[in-house]
Amino acid sequence: MSVRRLAEDQVQPAIFAFNDENSVWAEATIRKYPAGRQQSAVIPLLMRAQEQDGWVTRAAIEFVANKLDMPYIRVLEVATFYTQFQLKPVGTRAHIQVCGTTPCMLRGAEDLMKVCQHKIHHDPFALNAEGTLSWEEVECQGACVNAPMVIIFKDAYEDLTPQRLEEIIDAFEAGKGHEIKPGPQIDRIFSAPEGGPQTLNDEIKPVRTNLDPHPSAEEAAAAASIPPAEAARPKDTAPETDPKLKTPATAPAAAAANAKAAEKQPLSATAKSKPAPKTPGSAAEGAPPEPGAVSGDLKPKRARRKTTTEGES
Ligand code: FES
């Protein structure tokens, strides 16, 4: 941040006053603010004073302070805080503000500053020999997408090369600055691609618009009779997903044989008889019993307990 001071006394004019047009404008601007809040117009009035004289003089600061009933120091604080206010005389035909922030710097801002040093003056804020041109380095001006760029008065000149900046400076020096079109200096509109749009160039016909006639009743009925598509339905043909299977998928045939054998044998006979022939995967082989099946181990225990009770009696 540079120290910002007012210009030396020898270049300061003795008085300042708005011209007729700016006086009317200043009165209208002050009236925009509520009573007692007229000081809010300090920035617009200072900027208008700069546009009238090219820079903000001490006399202008005092004039604005008197106009808004403010202490001089308060207006001086504003004028010296914002770098948009020029506190020294600048070129009468152009003051070139070169953006030197990172995106512009990466795209060649240093070369643009060399052009300014070569064509105007080695030092920023210094006038050229004729007093018509000056330059300075400024921070980002919000046109990074079209870097590098410069600001002259209120216009931005973007996508610059050193050669193009030289042409622009020459035009302003000759009083023909208005002939230069602001904005991108290459073949593009705003920040669109160079040479025109590169994508979405095909004309896509909409499937249906509100201008198309509505379908007739027959067409609507025919469309409704079409069965829903099966495209999204899952295709699962694995055997274990057969909805007819109600038992565990493992050895269903053996489980059915066990259940049948248990039905044929009475409970007591089952306990005394030999174990049923083992079939692969059956409960006798260690597989878990079917729900509701009676285990053969229970019957002998009950019989032993009964015998002991009879002996005691
Ligand atoms: S960095 Fe230069 S305009 Fe943003």
TrEMBL record:
<dbReference type="GO" id="GO:1902494">
    <property type="term" value="C:catalytic complex"/>
</dbReference>
<feature type="region of interest" description="Disordered">
    <location>
        <begin position="176"/>
        <end position="313"/>
    </location>
</feature>
<dbReference type="InterPro" id="IPR036249">
    <property type="entry name" value="Thioredoxin-like_sf"/>
</dbReference>
<keyword id="KW-0411">Iron-sulfur</keyword>
<comment type="similarity">
    <text>Belongs to the complex I 24 kDa subunit family.</text>
</comment>
<dbReference type="GO" id="GO:0051537">
    <property type="term" value="F:2 iron, 2 sulfur cluster binding"/>
</dbReference>
<keyword id="KW-0001">2Fe-2S</keyword>
<dbReference type="GO" id="GO:0022890">
    <property type="term" value="F:inorganic cation transmembrane transporter activity"/>
</dbReference>
<dbReference type="GO" id="GO:0098662">
    <property type="term" value="P:inorganic cation transmembrane transport"/>
</dbReference>
<dbReference type="Pfam" id="PF01257">
    <property type="entry name" value="2Fe-2S_thioredx"/>
</dbReference>
<dbReference type="GO" id="GO:0008324">
    <property type="term" value="F:monoatomic cation transmembrane transporter activity"/>
</dbReference>
<keyword id="KW-0408">Iron</keyword>
<dbReference type="InterPro" id="IPR042128">
    <property type="entry name" value="NuoE_dom"/>
</dbReference>
<feature type="compositionally biased region" description="Low complexity">
    <location>
        <begin position="246"/>
        <end position="260"/>
    </location>
</feature>
<dbReference type="GO" id="GO:0003954">
    <property type="term" value="F:NADH dehydrogenase activity"/>
</dbReference>
<feature type="compositionally biased region" description="Low complexity">
    <location>
        <begin position="280"/>
        <end position="296"/>
    </location>
</feature>
<protein>
    <submittedName>
        <fullName>NADH-quinone oxidoreductase, E subunit</fullName>
    </submittedName>
</protein>
<dbReference type="GO" id="GO:0046872">
    <property type="term" value="F:metal ion binding"/>
</dbReference>
<keyword id="KW-1278">Translocase</keyword>
<keyword id="KW-0479">Metal-binding</keyword>
<keyword id="KW-0520">NAD</keyword>
<feature type="compositionally biased region" description="Low complexity">
    <location>
        <begin position="218"/>
        <end position="231"/>
    </location>
</feature>
<dbReference type="GO" id="GO:0022804">
    <property type="term" value="F:active transmembrane transporter activity"/>
</dbReference>
<dbReference type="GO" id="GO:0031090">
    <property type="term" value="C:organelle membrane"/>
</dbReference>
<dbReference type="InterPro" id="IPR002023">
    <property type="entry name" value="NuoE-like"/>
</dbReference>
<dbReference type="GO" id="GO:0031967">
    <property type="term" value="C:organelle envelope"/>
</dbReference>
<dbReference type="InterPro" id="IPR041921">
    <property type="entry name" value="NuoE_N"/>
</dbReference>
<dbReference type="GO" id="GO:0098796">
    <property type="term" value="C:membrane protein complex"/>
</dbReference>
<feature type="compositionally biased region" description="Basic and acidic residues">
    <location>
        <begin position="232"/>
        <end position="245"/>
    </location>
</feature>
